[in-house]
Amino acid sequence: MASFVDRVVLHVSGGSGGHGCVSVHREKFKPLGGPDGGNGGDGGDVILRVDGQTTTLLDYHHAPHRHASNGGPGMGDWRGGKSGETLILPVPDGTVVKNKDGEVLADLVGIGAEYMAAAGGLGGLGNASLSSQKRRAPGFALLGIEGDARDIVLELKSIADIALVGFPSAGKSSLIAAMSAARPKIADYPFTTLVPNLGVVQSGDVRFTIADVPGLIEGASEGKGLGHHFLRHVERCAALVHVLDCGTLEADRDPLSDLATIEQELDRYAVDMSYAGADGEVIPLNQRPKLVALNKVDLPDGKDMAEFVRPELEAKGYRVFEISATSHEGLRQLGFAMAEIVQAARDALASAPPKVQAPVLRPRAVNESGFKIRREEKNLEPLFRVLGDKPVRWVKQTDFTNEEAIGYLGDRLAKLGIETELFKMGATPGDTVVIGEDDGVVFDWEPTMMAGAELLAAPRGTDVRIADIGDRPTRSQKREEQIERRDAKAAARAELEAERKAGIWTESTNRRRTPAPLTESALDKDDFADGDEH
User: Which tens digits make up the pLDDT trace of 355-371?
Assistant: First the structure.
């Protein structure tokens, strides 16, 4: 079973927000109490926090799925739902957070450093919060939104001042055990060190940390051996110490060739951009201060080999120390040299001006609508896709089993200007409108869904604009009805024209006024001229 893990893929998700409540206040002698539905609670967040007691990512290796608690639903009598608890995930100091594409999201250095890995979802509003002067008693509430869900990569980079690098069995573990209280596993076979080891060294007034990583071999930067997995632990170190084996019994190896091989692998290794020095720039490994420790000089052959290669190493500019991790020879001088480099690096960091990140203000543009509409085509039919934080969030908050909630969504979208923009882009009634990406909600656009539902008289939970959707005629039916009405009007005109030509509508030209009602006495008089119609 693995006891040290320095890279894991973590699946985190924030808690979902609680749904809002639909409730009407009922109390004796108060028949019109009004809405009293409370809001749902927000979902809990997932936060990574540096903990001094955590040294490995082993827990997340065994349990990579972490979910924060959900928010509680709202209740009547204006009682809001309980917010979900924040999930704190402790991580070691020096943890780098990346996405699956390798982009650095956060570099957690220092006890207490935090990063929000996944935000909780918003709770839905109850009908008490949705009421207004025009919509006094809403019969619906908004739904809670699900929390963010994402996959992140956690990489541990040891916080050490000095890194010991070298071939397997060069004596790095023995050296860290001799100079500190660390007790790594030591054996007489290659690749004894399978995990990085840390040790604290006190040299004079300077206390610093040294790291021992698995041995490097030729091709380590390309994935050979074990050391390439742990080169990230060297990136934060201020200096490197090459531990060279002067007592090797292999005929094809010597300290000079070992040093050349290690330097070549360090040159090929690309330092992660997540680490930056005091000046804000990334320093390659091969450009950092270096010391050379010729180990195993307690052996007769080791002493001779050290004296043979030392002049050539010093000629190349290296500070060379002849040491023995077994007899502790030369360890004091090496420790003071390490302390000198560490103190110089700390002084440079302290004297460097603080890096103050200038705040970036991005005011909203005057003509920014908060959404955009993209015209697409599906099955040779036009499709309009609406994108934007507000429309997508509003759709997630809508209860599509409630007609009034759907009408409220239509009012919000129309007020935002989506309907006007669809008209400008040439959308016609019945076209497909999708709000969101691939998993968006699909609508058949009806431009008759205009704002003003609060002015329509309807029972709570219903909307007269939606209740009649099933009986609403289609475009073809409307066209047929229009044609029928036009034909009927044409037929009526033709009939009237025929009656006019037949003289049915002809009146006497001598008629000047409307005659009085006829009586028996009037019938005896000749009141009508010749040619008048009776």
Answer: 666 777 777 776 677 88
> Which residues, 6 or more positions from 192, have their beta carbon under 8 angstroms from its beta carbon?
168, 169, 173, 185, 186
Tell me the two tokens of residue 257.
Answer: 């060739």
- Phi/psi at 258 (5° precision): -65, -45
Coil vs helix vs strand at 95: strand
Place of tokens 């309980």: 82
CA nearest neighbour of 177 among 283, 328, 318: 328
Contact 104, 274 (CB under 8 A): yes
- Size of the chain, expressed as the number of residues it contains: 534
3-state SS, one letter per residue, for 313-337: HHHCCCEEEECECCCCECHHHHHHH
Give phi and psi for 215, each to the nearest 5.
Answer: -60, 145
Number of H helices, E strands in the chain: 12, 18
* Alpha carbon distance 140, 138 (integer Å): 6
- Residue range 85-120, pLDDT digits in tens: 999 999 988 888 998 888 888 888 888 999 999 999
Residue 160 is encoded by which pair of tokens?
Answer: 């050490």
Q: How far is CA 22 from the centre of its chain?
A: 31
> Residue 286: which residues within 8 A CB-CB, separation 6 or more?
263, 266, 267
Instruction: Identify the CA nearest to 443 among candidates 510, 373, 500.
Output: 373
Contacts of 449 (CB under 8 A, 6+ apart): 407, 410, 414, 419, 465
Separation of CA 145 from chain center: 14
Sequence letter at residue 35: P
Find where tokens 């924060």 sit: 68
Eight-class DSSP state of 145: P
From 41, 34, 178, 203, select the one nearest 123 (Cα to Cα).
41
> What is the spatial order of strands in the sheet that 239-245 belongs to?
197-203, 206-212, 162-165, 239-245, 290-295, 319-322
Q: Using the CB atoms, write b or e for 340-378: b if 16+ within 10 Å.
A: bbbbebeeeeeeeeeeeeeeeeeeeeeeeeebebeeeee
Other residues' Cβ atoms within 10 Å of the Cβ of residue 221: 17
**CA separation for the pair 169, 171 (Å, rounded):** 5
Torsion of CA 138, 142, 143, 148, to 10 degrees: -170
Percent of the chain beyond pLDDT 70? 76
Cα(114)–Cα(46) distance, rounded to whole angstroms? 10
CA-CA distance, 74 to 55, in Å (whole number)? 41
**Residue 67 confidence (pLDDT):** 96
332 φ/ψ sector (left φ>0, alpha ψ -120 to 50, else beta):
alpha
Residues 6+ apart with CB under 8 A from 443: 432, 433, 434, 435
